[in-house]
Specification:
Blueprint lengths: L1 H14 L13 H8 L2 H14 L11 E3 L5 H7 L14 E3 L4 H13 L3 E5 L16 E5 L6 E4 L4 E5 L4 H11 L3 E2 L10 H6 L7 H4 L6 E7 L5 E2 L1 H11 L10 E8 L1 E2 L4 E9 L4 H11 L7 E10 L8 E10 L3 H11 L11 E3 L1 H8 L21 E9 L5 H13 L3 E7 L3 H4 L15 E9 L5 H15 L29 H12 L3 H11 L18
Parallel strand pairs: 2-4, 3-4
Antiparallel strand pairs: 1-2, 5-6, 6-10, 7-11, 8-9, 8-10, 12-14, 12-15, 13-14, 13-17, 16-18, 17-18
The structure holds dihydroflavine-adenine dinucleotide (FDA).
Length: about 550
């Protein structure tokens, strides 16, 4: 089999844009329109199929919602984070499983009924790929699959893929004040998408990515089999820890290694405008933040200040810190390495790790940790995000040009996240996430708006900014973070997808790990059932 895959891979590269294995369920758009007139009989037939694949004791009636169901809209909208997609094409059915059997039956019946499947955990995909599609589709929304079982004695947790990061952090902190988990800062992000795409947060310089701390997983594959680490094998287990779960199956739950956090952590925030010397501080930050002790995380957030006042808008940079230790230890480190920031005892606040989670999520630390259980996003904005990685500090002139562009758009935000620490120690092939030792920091570019008419202008600005940054960021490939999904980088054709076409975006996200992902996908899902606009392609075997 390995020889076959190698030959197929060589052939695809040689043939250039020769088309690849197409999804076997490929239903034409014409068929879809004809199908509309038979809607209700199809609905019945799908539901019958679904029930027929369940043991009688497991048949429940609130799992499948058709477009006529009264709850359809509220369930669909419940975790749409990016309003840019709230009026996009809607799924034929919403399936809200309670257990593995429901997911197995959905996969089998979707294949029988020639429907695509999209899987949604927290709904934060930047391009909405968990709930929109241009071809007839079903959304499996995992919001019922969110139990969190924490075992402090053995320092692990099993978490359902539909749980949010907030639910995970809350459950850990309810059992221990000296354990945590290294994942992202936004509590409504789902663990299904986040961990399968990498997942970094304020303690990743100490412990690596969320995906680096997965010790087992349960997944339902294209044949409806429930696999764990042992039965899926190390290649597939490797692929779903950073390569995106959606290409390979439906992740049901993760077994996570809990990490130790001190009783007391410290935060500070120092904000400087350009007029107060922010450019010089960013210049220095670029050269030192990745070398800080792994207990110290200081990211830089660039945005516009005074946008609505009488004063001219300008740029401000906020240096936000989490330190895994006391103020005393933090000050002795930061005052030595970054005295220009002028951090003093008064800027620092000591708190517990779970309070730091609230703090970075934008809550007051006086709030109860219960707020982390709130899953509803209630987003009222559209947004576009992009990402880059930096290997060499951007010179002063480059930063000045960048700030000039930032000031043009008052809702733009750039987050510069320092690498180094534990990220530097992990091999770039250990998981599909490749950007480890050579990188100083990652950049997230973000712009948001609330009036639909502004979409073109805002996205146009984002693309100009991305072009401007080209000389200053990584090249060959220009690196990007998979969890900051960006369809500008390229998209798979439907129904045929070529390796060469997918390499456009695949190498940017996964670099040298892309080819291994392609090999794993070819074995795990040879007929490309789990296709999406940026799913890993399948090699055409002879
Ligand atoms: P969603 O449900 O939209 O899924 C995203 C992708 O994963 C889709 O392709 C989906 O099909 C697939 N998927 C989801 N569940 C699956 C499952 N169970 N099995 C198989 N495939 C599945 N990132 C980061 O690293 N650090 C951070 O701090 C943040 N912060 C942040 C804040 C906000 C406001 C947003 C909108 C996003 C972030 N992110 C982030 C990015 C985030 O990690 C990324 O969008 C994740 O993919 C979101 O996962 P969800 O499950 O919420 O999304």
């Amino acid at each position: 089999m390995v020889g076959k895959i190698t030959r197929a891979y060589e052939r695809e590269v040689k043939e250039g844009d020769v088309k690849m294995a197409s999804p076997k369920f490929g239903m034409s758009i014409l068929f879809f329109f004809l199908c509309i007139s038979f809607c209700s009989s199809t609905d019945q037939s799908f539901q019958q199929c679904f029930s027929s694949h369940l043991p009688p004791s497991n048949i429940t009636y609130d799992v499948i919602f058709t477009q006529n169901s009264s709850q359809y809209s509220s369930i669909l909208q419940s975790s749409i984070r990016n309003l840019r997609f709230s009026n996009a094409s809607k799924p034929r059915y919403l399936v809200t499983p309670y257990n593995e059997d429901h997911i197995q039956a959905t996969i089998i019946c979707s294949k029988e009924h020639h429907m695509h499947v999209r899987v949604r955990s927290g709904g934060h995909d930047y391009e909405g790929l968990s709930y929109i599609s241009d071809v007839p589709f079903i959304v499996i929304d995992l919001f019922h699959i969110r139990s969190v079982m924490v075992d402090i004695k053995n320092e692990y947790a099993w978490v359902g893929a539909g749980a949010t990061l907030g639910e995970l952090y809350y459950s850990i902190s309810a059992k221990s004040n000296v354990h945590g988990f290294p994942a992202g800062s936004c509590p409504t992000v789902g663990v299904g998408g986040h961990i399968s795409g990498g997942g970094f947060g304020t303690i990743f310089r100490k412990y690596g990515l969320a995906a680096d701390n997965v010790i087992d997983a349960k997944m339902i594959d294209v044949n409806g089999n429930v696999l764990d680490r042992k039965s899926m094998g190390e290649d597939l287990f490797w692929a779903i820890r950073g390569g995106g779960g959606a290409s390979f199956g439906v992740i049901f739950s993760w077994k996570l290694k809990l990490v130790r956090v001190p009783l007391t952590v410290t935060v500070f925030k120092t904000v400087k405008s350009l007029e107060q010397g922010a450019t010089k501080l960013v210049q220095k930050w670029q050269n030192i933040a990745y070398k800080f002790h792994h207990d110290l995380f200081v990211h830089a957030v660039i945005q516009v200040t005074n946008p609505n006042s009488n004063q001219n808008p300008t740029v401000q940079v906020s240096f936000d810190c989490l330190f895994l230790g006391t103020t005393e230890r933090l000050l002795s480190s930061i005052q030595r390495s970054f005295p220009e920031l002028g951090v003093t005892q008064e800027n620092c606040t000591e708190m517990s790790w779970i309070q730091s989670v609230l703090y970075f999520a934008g809550y007051s630390i006086a709030e109860s940790a219960d707020v982390l259980l709130n899953r509803t996003t209630q987003s009222t904005q559209s947004f576009k995000g992009k990402s880059d990685y930096v290997k060499e500090a951007i010179p002063k002139t480059g930063l000045e040009g960048l700030f000039k562009m930032v000031v043009e758009e008052e809702t733009s935000v750039l987050i510069l996240t320092p690498y180094g620490g534990r990220m530097k120690q992990i091999k770039s092939s250990a998981t599909p996430f490749p950007y480890r030792s050579e990188y100083l920091y990652g950049i997230q570019y973000m712009i948001s708006w609330d009036v639909a008419e502004e979409t073109g202008k805002r996205i146009g600005w984002m693309r100009r900014l991305y072009k401007y940054m080209e000389p200053y960021v990584s090249t060959a490939p220009r690196a990007a973070y998979f969890n900051y999904r960006d369809l500008d980088l390229g998209r798979n054709s439907y129904p045929n997808t070529s390796y060469v076409e997918s390499s456009e975006w695949g190498l940017k996200y996964f670099n040298h790990n892309f080819n291994r992902l392609v090999r794993v996908k070819t074995l795990a899902d040879p007929h490309n059932f789990f296709w999406n606009e940026q799913s890993i392609p399948v090699l055409r075997l002879e």
